[in-house]
Q: What sequence folds into this?
């Protein structure tokens, strides 16, 4: 039986070490060095294993490997919040079912199965997931890892989000009365009367609030995004359209003037130290609304947990307020109500788009057209003209 061929290493007298040249994944020679032949032999084996893995990744990577590389190449120029959303969708909706499959082995049925697994998610989430899956597999096709994109004919499923109902005038009045004197009062007022997004309100500073001119307004120039609970202030807005100047009505002007007298911080909505609120501090502030809302909650009787219910008009047993809010309230609902009120007041759709900070007028129309189409009082004049 022939003996295994002895590894040849070169001894470098000037460096007092052994040397070995090997080819890297790009076919270029690189030098490895070690004090002993055994050490260099181990280094060579490790380096060759890395080269094999690299070549395998290039030639037949798993979906996880290729998707992560695709993220590195394609998401670097995307805004932080968008990139985080895309990374979440790729990780939880695509890598979870497809991650360990080799890209060249993924079939249309595999893609269908992955999309079927998230069919109970919102239609928007499913459309994003499919768009990302097709982009990743298009890239694999362009790089000749696969002959054809297996996701090219897949359709997005998902549950269509129900149309959100804006608050009525009476509900908005109830909400404003309920939060009067709490930390949520100014936040609610800005949402209802200026339609800012949550991150725009948290990042709003007094230098962007004009209360003294003939046209009082709020200039949206900053946002606050939470990272590890802390608020990071940025001038990079959701889109170019989010940079806007919003005229504000007298009711909001008066509220902000009163707040400015008390608030010496740079931020309109601030924490005790004068900075922007952390995510936890915002949740605590929003609790003022949840605490005044009706519904079930977990209480105790004789030290044992018991399901209880807060009834409309009932006084909170431990605090000096009543349960007056019997409708769901979210930060986005404030903005939704503002935009709906503009539409119902007959404001031109392009003006609504600008004030809402929507990048595309189709977005405004898609969400709010039903307000313009469904009310007889808005269409009766046109019908009378048609049959006059």
A:
């Amino acid at each position: 039986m022939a003996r295994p061929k002895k590894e040849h290493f070169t001894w470098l007298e000037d460096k007092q070490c052994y040397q070995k040249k090997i080819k890297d994944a790009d076919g270029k020679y690189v030098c490895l060095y070690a004090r002993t032949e055994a050490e260099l032999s181990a280094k060579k084996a490790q380096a060759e294993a890395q080269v094999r893995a690299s070549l395998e990744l290039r030639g037949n990577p798993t979906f996880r490997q290729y998707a992560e590389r695709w993220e590195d190449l394609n998401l670097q120029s995307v805004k932080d919040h968008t990139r985080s959303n895309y990374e979440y969708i790729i990780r939880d909706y695509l890598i979870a079912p497809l991650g360990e499959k080799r890209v060249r082995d993924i079939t249309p049925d595999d893609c269908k199965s992955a999309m079927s697994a998230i069919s109970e998610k919102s239609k928007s989430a499913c459309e994003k997931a499919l768009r990302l899956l097709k982009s990743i597999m298009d890239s694999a096709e362009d790089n000749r890892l696969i002959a054809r994109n297996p996701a090219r004919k897949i359709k997005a499923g998902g549950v269509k989000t129900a149309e959100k109902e804006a608050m009525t005038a009476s509900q908005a009045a109830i909400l404003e009365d309920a939060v009067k004197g709490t930390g949520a009062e100014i936040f609610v007022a800005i949402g209802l009367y200026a339609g800012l997004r949550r991150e725009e309100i948290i990042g709003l500073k007094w230098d962007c609030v004009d209360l003294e001119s003939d046209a009082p307004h709020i200039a949206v120039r900053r946002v606050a995004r939470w990272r590890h609970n802390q608020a990071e202030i940025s001038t990079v807005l959701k889109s170019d359209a989010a940079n806007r100047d919003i005229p504000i009505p007298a009711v909001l002007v008066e509220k902000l003037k009163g707040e400015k007298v008390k608030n010496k911080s740079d931020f309109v909505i601030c924490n005790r130290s004068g900075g922007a609120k952390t995510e936890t501090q915002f949740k605590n502030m929003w609790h003022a609304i949840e605490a005044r809302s009706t519904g079930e909650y977990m209480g105790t009787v004789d030290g044992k947990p018991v399901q209880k219910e807060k009834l409309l008009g009932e006084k909170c047993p431990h605090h000096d307020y009543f349960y007056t809010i019997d409708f769901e309230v979210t930060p986005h609902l404030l903005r939704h109500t503002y935009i709906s009120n503009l539409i119902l007041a007959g404001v031109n759709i392009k003006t609504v788009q600008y004030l809402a900070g929507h990048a595309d007028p189709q977005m405004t129309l898609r969400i709010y057209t039903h307000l313009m189409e469904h009310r007889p009082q808005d269409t009766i004049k046109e019908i009378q003209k048609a049959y006059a």
Remarks:
- Residues 10-59 form one domain.
- The two ends are 108 Å apart (CA to CA).
